[in-house]
Amino acid sequence: MTKRIAGISGPLALTLGLVPMLTPTAGWAASLPTPPATGLLDGLCYPYVPKVENNPAGVDPNSLPVEVDADRLDAKQGGTAVYQGDVKVRQGVRKFDSDYAQLDQTSRDMVAIGNIFYSDGQITVTSDKTLKSNLNTKNSELEEGKYQVHGSPVRGSAKHVTMTNNNQNITLESAEYTTCPPGQEVWTLKAGSIDIDQSEVFGQAWNASLWLYDFPVFYFPYINFPIKDERKTGLLYPGYKTSSRNGTEITQPFYWNIAPNYDATITQRFMDKRGLMEQVEFRYMPAPNHVGSLYFENLANDKQFGSSNSTTSSLDDGHRYLFHVTHGSSLMDGSLRFGANYTKVRDRDYNYYSDFKPAVGSEVDSQLMQSLTAGYYQTNWNLTSEVRTYQILSPTALLPHEMLPRLNYNYYQQGSWYDLAFNNELTKFGYSDTEASSKQQGERYTATRLHLEPTLTVPLVTRPGYYLNSQYKLMMTSYNQDVPDHLVSYDSERFTQNGELKLEDGTLTRTLPSFRLMSGMNFDRPVTWYDGKGTQTLEPEVQYLYTPYRDQDSIGLYDTTDVQQDYYSLFSDRRYAGLDRISDANRVTAGLTSRVYDNAGDERLRLAIAQAFDMTKPRVLLYPSASATTNSRSPLSFEGDSRITDRWFAHAGAQYDTEVGEFSSANSAVEYRLDKLVSQVNYRFLKDGNYNFRNTSQAEDLSQAGLVLMAPIDNQWQVYGGYYRDVKQNIDVDRKVGVKYDSCCWSVNLSVEWNNNPYWENSVLKTRSEKSIGLQFEMKGLGSVGSGGRTVSLDTDQLPYIRPFNLKGQ
35 and 184: one domain? Predict the structure, then answer.
C-alpha cells in the first residue's frame, strides 16, 4: 500500500526543479503578442480562459514554502529520487503535476513523464509526453507541449520546446499560435521554428504560414515579432481601399524605431489613378516636456494632372505635396511654453484636402494655418505671443491678414469685493505680396494695433438664490494704419460709401467705455417625477449693456467677423468677434432657463429661451457699404435638451426672427440608445448657409436632414451607416452603409460611402459624386489588414457624428 508524502519544503523543492525548469515556458508565453479585449464577446468566447493569479505583493515566490504530494517516493542518498503516482508540487500560485518524476542527485538531471501540468498564475502548460531538465545548467526540453495564457485567449502548441542559456533562449519547433477558442480555429499561425531571446525585443520565426481553417493563405519564409511591450523596426500591416477619386489604394507602412524617444513611419501609398505617394512621419520626444512630430507627403507626378478630368489645372505640373509640423515645449515647471502648428501644401493646390484627405492639419473655411506660439504663465498674469500666417485653398478668396506677431498681456486679481482684469494686445497685421498680387491687382491695407482693456467687476448683491453684478470696461485702441493708393478692388467696394473710400491712412484711435449689469434668480420646487424626489428649477436672467457709439468705418477689418447669435451669445458684451468693430449697445437681454433633476441629482431636462431688445438701434456696421438693421430685437433664441428615458434623448435649438417672422437657423436631434444600438434622426437649417450643389456660384439655405444608425443583428453581426440629404435642393449630401462581423478571434468590417465632394476647377467651385469602399480584416492578437477602422463608426466623410445632448450628470 502506497502512502502520500506532504509538507516537504526547502531542498526538496530544488530536486523537482520547480523554478528553473518552468519559468522559461512562462517567459515564452509572455513574449507572444496579447490581443485586446473583445468586449461583448468575452463571456461568450472565453469561459475556459483561467484568471490571472499573483503571489502577495512584495513576496519573492522562491522564498515561499513548497508542498509535495506523491503516491510513492523512492530515494537514496546520492542516487536517484523517484516520485510516482499523482505527483503534485505547490509553491504559492505555482502548480506542477505529473504522473512520474525522477531526479539524478549527482548529475542533477530531472525527467517528468505523463500528464505534465504547470501553472504559475500567468500561463498554463500541459504535455502528455516528457520534460527533461538539468538543475545546474538550467537547460530544459519539453515534448508536445500546449500552452494557455491566463486572462487572454492566446494559446497554442509546439512539438518540441528547448530552453537554454539560463532560460533566456527558447526554441519552439512546429509551433502554433491562435486566439480562437478550442474547436473554433478560424485562423492559426504555424511556424516550422521559432527562436526567442528574452534579452532582445523581438523573436524570429522561419517557415511560417497563416491558416484559415484548414487552408494556408499566406506564407512567410521569415518573420520577426515583438516579444516585449516595446517598439520594433519593421513592416507594418498593409492597407487597402478603393474609391472613384483615387482608384485602388494600397498602403505599405514601414516603422523605424530610431531610439526610445524617436521613431519614424515611412509609408508608400499607391493610387492607381494618381501614382505613388511617399508619406513620412517623424516623432520625437527628447524630454517629457518637449514633444513634436514632422509629417511630409509627396506625389511626384499626379497622373490626373493634364487629363480631361483634372482638378489641378492651376499647377504647372503634377507635383503635389504637404508639410506639417506640431511641437510643444514647456520649461520652468510649465511656466514657459512654446508651440508650433504648421500645415502647408503647394501654392495654388486648392484641391489637396479634397483629393487626398490627409490625416494631419485641418482645412477650415478654405484656410490652412501656420502658427508659432510662446507664453509665460503665472498665477495672476500671463504674457503670450503668436505669429500666424495662412494659406488659402481657394482661387477666388483673399488671403486673411497675418499676425506678425501678436503679443498679449493678461492680468487678473480677485479682491474681497471686486474682480479686476487687465487685458492688453499688440498686433502687427500684414499680408503676403505674392498671394495678393496673384489674385487681384492692387495692394492690401495693413496696420499695427494696440488694445488696452481694463475691466472691473463688482458684485452688488450675492445671496443664495439670486445675484446682481456690475461690470465696467474701458476699451482703448490705437491703429497705425497703412492704406495703399491702389487698394484691391474687393476691399475698395466694401469700404466705399457714396463714392468715398472710408479707410484712412495714419494713426487712428478709439476709446469706448462699457457698462454692464447682470442679474439672475434661482427658484426650485419638488416634483412628483422620479419617485417623488425630482426637482424643477426656474432661473430667470436679465442683462443690461451700454456702450456708446463711435464711427469706426475708417478702420480696416483684420480679425473681426459676425458672431452667430444663440442663447449664450445674447448675454455677451460683443456683437462681433474681434476688436476692429466694437458695436454700440443700449440693450436689455432677458432669458429664462428651467431644469428638471431626477432623484439621483442628474439633469434630465433643460429648456432655455432668451431675446435681446435694443432700446437704441446699433449703428456700427462691419462695412460702410453694409445695410443697417431695422430690427430692434434680436432673434428669439431657444435651446432644449432632454433625457426622456434612459434610452431616449432629444435636442432642439432655434433662432427665430420675430421682426420678419422666419427662422434664421435651427437644429434638432432625437436619439435612441440600447446597449450597442444607436439611432439618431437630426435636422439643421441655416439661412443662406450653403452653396448650391448644382450651381456653386449661388448661395442657398441649408436645410439638411440626417439619419445615423448602429444596430446589432446578433452577438456577432452589426450594421451601421449614415444618410444626409439636403431636402430643399433635393440632393444626397452623404450616404454610408457598413456591416461588421465580429467573432471570438477575428472580424471583418466592410463599408461603402457615396458623397458630394466640393472641388475647384478653373477657379469655379463644383461638386462631384464620389464612391469609396473600405474593407478591414482583423485577426485578433495577430494584426489587421485593410482600410477603415476595426470598430464601427457613425462618422461620414463629410459630417461627423455628434451627440448634441449636454446635460449635467450624463
Answer: yes
Task: At 647, list the grid cell.
Answer: 434610452
State the pTM of this model. Answer: 0.79
429 in Cβ contact with 450 (< 8 Å)? no
Backbone angles phi, psi at 312, to 5 degrees: -125, 35
Tell me, what's the pLDDT at 171?
86
Helices (H), 117-164: none
696 inside domain: yes
For 579, phi and psi rounded to 5 degrees?
-110, -5
Same domain (yes/no): 484, 567: yes
Query: Residue 626: pLDDT above 70?
Result: yes
Judgement on whether residues 752 and 625 belong to the same structural domain of the protein: no
From 394, 426, 450, the end of a domain falls on 394
- Phi and psi torsions of 436, nearest 5°: -65, -45
pLDDT tens column, 757-777: 888 887 787 888 888 888 888
For residues 592 and 518, state if they share a domain.
yes
Q: What are phi and psi of 603, to 5 degrees?
A: -75, 125
Dump the DSSP string for 742-792: E-SSEEEEEEEEEEEEEEEETTEEEEEEEEEEEEEEEETTTEEEESS-SS-
Beta strands in 416-505 (DSSP E): 419-430, 446-463, 466-482, 496-497, 500-501
- CA-to-CA distance for 542 and 468, rounded, in angstroms? 10
Average pLDDT over residues 122-144: 83
Q: Are 414 and 457 in contact (CB under 8 A)?
A: no
* 809 lies in some domain: yes
d(CA 774, CA 787): 5
CA proximity to 779, closest of 102, 195, 179: 179
Structural domains in the chain (count): 4
Spatial distance between the Cα atoms of 354 and 200, rounded to a whole number of angstroms: 44
* Higher pLDDT, residue 449 or 502: 449
- Write out pLDDT tens, residues 474-492: 999 999 999 998 888 778 8
Domain that holds residue 606: 437-634
Could you give phi then psi for residue 468, rounded to 5 degrees?
Answer: -145, 115
Q: Assess whether 251 and 220 both reside in one domain.
A: no
Q: What is the DSSP string of 43-93?
A: HHH-TTSPPP--PPTT--GGGS--EEE-SEEE--TTSEEEEEEEEEEEETT
List, as one string, the DSSP characters of 708-746.
EEEEESSSSEEEEEEEEEETTTTEEEEEEEEEEEE-SSE
Task: Point out the domain boundary residue: 188, 205, 230.
Answer: 230
Task: Single out the residue of 681, 728, 680, 687 nearest to residue 704, CA to CA.
Answer: 728
Instruction: Judge whether 625 lies within some domain.
Output: yes
Domain match, 45 and 88 both: yes
Three-state DSSP string of 607-661: EEEEEEEECCCCCCCCCCCCCCCCCCECCEEEEEEEECCCCEEEEEEEEEECCCC
Q: pLDDT (tens digit, 9 = 90+) per residue, 243-259?
A: 888 999 999 999 998 99
pLDDT over 60 at 32, yes or no: no
Question: Could you tell me if residue 127 is inside a domain?
Answer: yes
pLDDT, tens digit, for every residue of 161-172? Answer: 887 876 667 788
153 & 262 share domain = no
Side chain identity at residue 101, one-letter code = A
pLDDT at 578 over 70: yes
Where is 258: in which H helix or E strand? strand 247-259
In contact, 334 and 290? CB cutoff 8 Å:
no
List CB contacts of 317: < 8 A, sequence separation 6 or more.
301, 305
Find the CATH number of the domain harbouring 102: 2.60.450.10
Query: Quick check: 45 pLDDT over 90?
Result: no
Note the helical H segments in 507-643. Answer: 529-532
Number of H helices, E strands in the chain: 7, 47
CB 315 within 8 A of CB 346: yes
Task: Identify whether residues 694 and 564 lie together within a single domain.
Answer: no
